[in-house]
Design a protein that fits this description.
The chain has 124 residues and is of the alpha+beta class. It has three helices and six strands, in the order ββαββαββα.
């Protein structure tokens, strides 16, 4: 399956991917994806996640979410999130609150705001 970006006109039975025959007919030979690792993780200074120190329900990896443009490379309806204990969950965000956390602008370098997003939206 190859990725379909920004197309909300079709049903979502392929979870953002074209069926192989359609991708081949359109000449699509690769898949786009982008993920965001959790950077500061809790308190500053930045530190890595720790199974001894952090809850298993802390998100550590998610589809890129830090701007509307980048969020369009991932699932339009929300974000896949991986947690410290290895489980995953799809966080539905149809109103696009996560990618618009900075008022619709890009907050790629704002790790403080990203940590607030992790805690507010993704941590269980």
């Amino acid at each position: 399956m190859r990725y379909r970006t920004g197309d909300t006109s079709r049903d979502n039975r392929y979870a953002g991917f074209f069926p192989e025959d359609e991708a081949d007919a359109m000449g699509i030979k690769h898949m786009y994806s982008s993920y965001r690792y959790r950077c500061p993780f809790g308190d500053y200074p930045r530190r890595p996640a720790s199974v001894a120190r952090d809850a298993a329900s802390c998100g550590v990896l998610a589809d890129t979410f830090f701007s509307p443009d980048w969020a369009n490379w991932c699932h339009i309806e929300g974000y896949s999130v991986v947690y410290l204990d290895g489980h995953t969950r799809f966080y539905r965000d149809t109103d696009r609150a996560v990618c618009n956390a900075a008022g619709g602008g890009d907050y790629n370098g704002d790790y403080g705001l990203q940590e607030i997003v992790w805690q507010t939206f993704f941590d269980e």
